[in-house]
Amino acid sequence: MGQVFYIDLTGISSKEELQALLTKELPLPDYYGSNLDALYDVLTEQGEGWNLIFYNVTKITVDMENYLTKLQKMCKNAANECDNLQIRFFP
Predict the structure, then answer these.
(1) What is the domain range of residue 8?
(2) Fewest Cβ atoms closer than 10 Å to its Cβ: which of 6, 42, 47, 51?
(3) What is the number of domains present in the chain?
(4) What does the pLDDT look like over 45-90, one tens digit per residue?
């Protein structure tokens, strides 16, 4: 059975806030680099069986929309690379 992680994006207004949230919600290694490249590495190396559910995506601040798009693209690539990794985004 896989692990399910619910990540609430309400009010996230910076990359640093998002990375802090991911560090809190996911079992990331101590050496995690707090950026999208590091997240990709963790997802593709350790994410088998993980089910990430990002919700309240529409409540992320306007300043974060471009970063959110990059996050979504990276997550799609990671899910394509790693068997049994599911990542979904909900409004």
Answers:
(1) 3-89
(2) 6
(3) 1
(4) 999 999 999 999 999 988 899 999 999 999 999 999 998 999 999 9
